């Protein structure tokens, strides 16, 4: 790990992010089968959420955007809570992770990185409902972030590649995000 990665990892831990794992962004390959899950719209965000398809771009556009970056870091944040029954705390943990991603982006900017693309876990939760549902512009275009899932990345397989736990637990939520720089 180089000096920058050590510094970034230390800052991530200060934010409560348990995992800061640098990797080659070439491992991020948008997949049609993941995008097809978005088309099924089981989460009710397709075409009604600015940080979900079709607003986030085609697979080709996403792949071209990813290829512009030379470094990537996988980030994970966990919180103990009753996942099934405490929806408000679950939502708040997602917002907390989103804010941690924004803080990491700010850290990277302060370290001289010019091009940064942060992605959070789950869909952006800054507004409920998303302004897209209301036919209004996003009130936070500088803070809204897509997720790895929404850009068609198979997160579970990515976690497997790194030997990270990809299980779901009833008493703990683990959010996985990524920052490209």
- Into which percentage range does the β-strand content fall? 5-15%
Spatial arrangement of strands, main beta sheet? 1-2-4-3
Backbone CA Rg = 16 Å
Please indicate the count of domains: 1
Derived structural class: alpha+beta
Mean pLDDT: 95
Biggest sheet record: 4 strands, antiparallel
Apparent shape: globular
Distance between the termini: 16 Å
- Approximate helicity band: 25-40%
SSE layout and pairing:
Elements (H helix, E strand, L loop, with lengths): L2 H13 L3 E5 L8 H9 L18 H8 L5 E9 L6 H24 L6 E3 L35 H7 L10 E9 L1
Antiparallel strand pairs: 1-2, 2-4, 3-4
Brief synopsis:
Helix content is 34%, strand content 14%. By secondary structure, it is of the alpha+beta class. Strands 1-2-4-3 form a four-stranded antiparallel beta sheet.
Feature tags:
globular, single chain, 181 residues, 4-stranded antiparallel β-sheet, alpha+beta, 5 helices
Could you characterize what this model shows?
This protein has 181 residues and is an alpha+beta fold. The chain has one domain (3-33, 58-121, 147-180). 34% of the residues lie in helices and 14% in strands. It has 5 helices and 4 strands, in the order αβααβαβαβ. Strands 1-2-4-3 form a 4-stranded antiparallel sheet. Helix 1 (3-15) packs antiparallel against helix 4 (87-110). It is globular and about 45 Å long. The two termini are 16 Å apart.
């Amino acid at each position: 790990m180089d000096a920058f990665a050590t510094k970034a990892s230390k800052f991530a831990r200060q934010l409560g992010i348990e995992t800061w794992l640098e990797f080659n962004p070439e491992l991020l390959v948008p997949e049609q089968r993941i995008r097809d899950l978005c088309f099924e719209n089981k989460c009710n965000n397709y075409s009604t959420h600015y940080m979900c398809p079709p607003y986030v771009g085609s697979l080709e556009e996403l792949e071209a955007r990813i290829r512009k970056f030379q470094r990537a870091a996988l980030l994970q944040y966990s919180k103990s809570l009753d996942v099934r029954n405490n929806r408000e705390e679950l939502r708040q943990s997602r917002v907390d992770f989103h804010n941690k991603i924004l803080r990491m982006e700010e850290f990277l900017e302060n370290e001289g990185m010019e091009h940064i693309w942060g992605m959070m876990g789950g869909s952006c939760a800054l507004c409920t409902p998303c302004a897209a549902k209301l036919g209004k512009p996003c009130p936070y275009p500088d803070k809204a972030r897509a997720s790895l899932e929404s850009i068609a990345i198979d997160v579970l397989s990515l976690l497997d590649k790194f030997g990270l736990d990809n299980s779901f637990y009833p008493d703990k939520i683990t959010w996985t995000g990524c920052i490209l720089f």
